[in-house]
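SEQUENCE AND FOLD
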Amino acid sequence: MTSNQWYLYVVACSDESLYTGITTDVERRVEEHNQSNEGARYTRSRRPVRLVASWSCDSHSEAARLEYAFKALRRDQKLARLDVASVHDLLD
């Protein structure tokens, strides 16, 4: 069953990089990033990943638009949106 609810999510990778994506099921998606080949190629070599934020969206198109905007931010701007000084703070 597919939900109409979409989410924008951010995970912190073991190398302290950030990965941003969209999904209808945040918990399942984070598990895929950590456990299976269904996760993004980027995160496969940076496991484990930890969910640091998610925001609900009204539609796939809204989630995709917000993902694009978040990915366009500089790293310091992303960290400010996550309200931390460094990714290390997210992993502690």
